[in-house]
Amino acid sequence: MDCIFCKIAKKDIPAAVVLENDNLIAIKDINPQAPAHILIMPKKHYATLLDCKDKGLIGDMLLMANQVAEKLKVYEKGFRVVINTNQDGGQTVFHLHMHLLAGRPLSGMMG
Fold it and tell me: How many other C-beta atoms can be found within 10 angstroms of the C-beta atom of residue 102?
């Protein structure tokens, strides 16, 4: 498989790791859209959210988002988590991942 996120999870490609456990890895986004922009992804490959039926893993991704927010000291002011799914949803890398954005006021369509 030629998935860049799988290669990062296997440590074949270096990345700035923020947090990691047996099933997940959180890395700094190389093209940040906010002062704190972290990608949280499973080490196992799922192309999209639609392909992952493991609700425990999805829950663990959200719990890791909380841990990352605490580690980066952005949890009090707030942060956003987003999972883009498929092309119209804005997904550009087809390996399930969650964006954590923080460090400035975030605007947009979500309220």
Answer: 22
- What structural domains and CATH numbers belong to the chain? 4-14+21-102 (3.30.428.10)
Rounded Cα distance, 89 and 48, in Å = 11
Each residue's pLDDT tens digit, 68-102: 999 999 999 999 999 999 999 999 999 999 999 99
97 belongs to the catalytic site: yes
Q: Please state the pTM of the whole predicted model.
A: 0.94
Convert the pLDDT of each residue in 32-80 to its tens digit: 999 999 999 999 999 999 999 999 999 999 999 999 999 999 999 999 9
What is the C-alpha to C-alpha distance for residues 51 and 33, in angstroms, rounded to an integer?
26
Catalytic residue among 37, 45, 97, 99: 97
- Give whole-number Cα distances, 110 to 39, 69, 72, 80, 81, in Å: 19, 19, 23, 10, 11
